[in-house]
């Protein structure tokens, strides 16, 4: 096994690009050597932190650098084409979730990886979050029997400035927040349930922020320039995105290929910001109360009763260092190891496609007054290839 540092590039230098810094370990296995963003301000700010890197305005200038891998942390609509370009150039790719903003877009990326043989990895970091791993371990232990239903309530708080003051609010760039944010939770529910969505229906709308008329073009600003916990209550917000045509409230029902049913609810004007999962099985149920270190997952499985706070099992969510409750450094370490050695990973390109496909179908249903929408099947050859760990048969 080579001990030389792997050479990585980063495309898209916004807030999420910081995840790639976990791969900058000069002399210890990997380093960031090239960065890319159309914004000169972003490039200069990044070079201040990575002075030995080279900077580019267009990702296509990086295709011939013989990189060992690249992190794509661009806005969602800019995942698909750059991913395909790098894969076709033989460069392993880390794509920040969601893989793409349409089901067909995901399929194009998977096909490019299949044809090129270049390794594809999707940044579904929640598979490395302690709260999710705790729930998964409890399910695997048989604590609630066979999973039959999962409900997720996602309270996307902070008064809307996270997602309604920039490109996230434009459906041309995200399809919807039901897909953009929901891809995380749908992937988690798929993973816990052991299946993928085959049919979806949903309702929702732009129920609060659409009434705010004060708009502002923030294309020259960074995330920290317009996000503040002082922006409360939601209807007091100003300077919303010029294009704001995604829903701030959505509710989806998903039917899986193994008979499990999921419900996903997302609200962008709650005062609190966290996720609540309830998983119901044939022999009990579990639920998380908080999703960070020191919070708990509770299990009720010993007897019938009315409401009781005294769960039969209480598991504390462990602490871990790093962003997203320690998930980000674990995610990047897995990608770096996958580039160097291959092998199994917690994340899955097929699962990433399934999460987008479910979110896309649900969004289509939502905008068609709840009409149920079937999810198109993925080419079995692609399923087999990625299930083998992206190795030739």
From TrEMBL:
Domain Gfo/Idh/MocA-like oxidoreductase N-terminal stretches: 6-124
Pfam families for this protein: GFO_IDH_MocA, GFO_IDH_MocA_C
Lineage of producing organism: Bacteria, Bacillati, Actinomycetota, Actinomycetes, Propionibacteriales
Protein name, per record: Dehydrogenase
InterPro entries in the record: Gfo/Idh/MocA-like_OxRdtase_C, Gfo/Idh/MocA-like_OxRdtase_N, Gfo/Idh/MocA_oxidoreduct, NAD(P)-bd_dom_sf
Domain Gfo/Idh/MocA-like oxidoreductase C-terminal: start-end pairs: 136-370
Family: Belongs to the Gfo/Idh/MocA family.
Protein origin, superkingdom: Bacteria
């Amino acid at each position: 096994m080579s001990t030389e540092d792997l050479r990585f590039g980063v495309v898209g230098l916004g807030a999420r690009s910081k995840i790639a810094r976990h791969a900058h370990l000069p002399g210890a296995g990997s380093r960031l050597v090239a960065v890319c963003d159309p914004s000169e301000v972003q490039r200069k700010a990044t070079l201040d932190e990575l002075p030995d890197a080279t900077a580019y305005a267009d990702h296509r200038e990086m295709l011939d650098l013989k990189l060992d891998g690249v992190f794509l942390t661009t806005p969602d609509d800019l995942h698909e084409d750059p991913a395909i370009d790098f894969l076709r150039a033989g460069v392993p790719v880390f794509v920040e979730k969601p893989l793409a903003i349409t089901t067909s877009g995901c399929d194009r990326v998977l096909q490019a990886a299949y044809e090129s043989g270049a390794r594809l990895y999707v940044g579904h970091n929640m598979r490395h979050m302690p709260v999710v791993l705790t729930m998964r371990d409890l399910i695997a232990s048989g604590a609630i029997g066979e999973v039959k239903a999962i409900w997720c309530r996602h309270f996307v708080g902070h008064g809307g400035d996270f997602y309604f003051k920039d490109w996230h609010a434009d459906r041309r760039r995200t399809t919807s927040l039901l897909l953009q944010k929901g891809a995380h939770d749908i992937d988690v529910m798929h993973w816990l349930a052991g299946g993928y969505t085959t049919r979806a229906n949903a309702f929702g709308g732009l129920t609060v922020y659409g009434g705010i008329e004060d708009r502002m073009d923030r294309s020259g600003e960074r995330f920290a320039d317009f996000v503040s916990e002082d922006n409360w209550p939601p209807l007091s917000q100003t300077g919303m995105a010029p294009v704001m045509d995604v829903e701030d409230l959505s509710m989806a029902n998903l039917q899986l290929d193994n008979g499990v049913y999921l419900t996903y609810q997302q609200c962008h004007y709650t005062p609190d910001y966290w996720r609540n999962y309830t998983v119901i099985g044939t022999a009990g149920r579990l639920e998380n109360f908080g999703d960070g270190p020191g919070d708990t997952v509770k299990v009720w499985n010993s007897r019938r009763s009315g409401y009781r706070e005294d769960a039969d099992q209480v598991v504390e969510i462990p602490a871990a260092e790093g962003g997203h409750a320690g998930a980000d450094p674990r995610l990047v370490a897995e990608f770096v190891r996958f580039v160097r050695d291959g092998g199994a990973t917690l994340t899955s390109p097929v699962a990433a496609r399934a999460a987008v496909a479910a979110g896309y179908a649900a969004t289509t249903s939502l905008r068609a007054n709840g009409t149920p929408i079937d999810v198109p099947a993925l080419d079995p050859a692609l399923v087999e290839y990625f299930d083998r760990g992206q190795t030739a048969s």
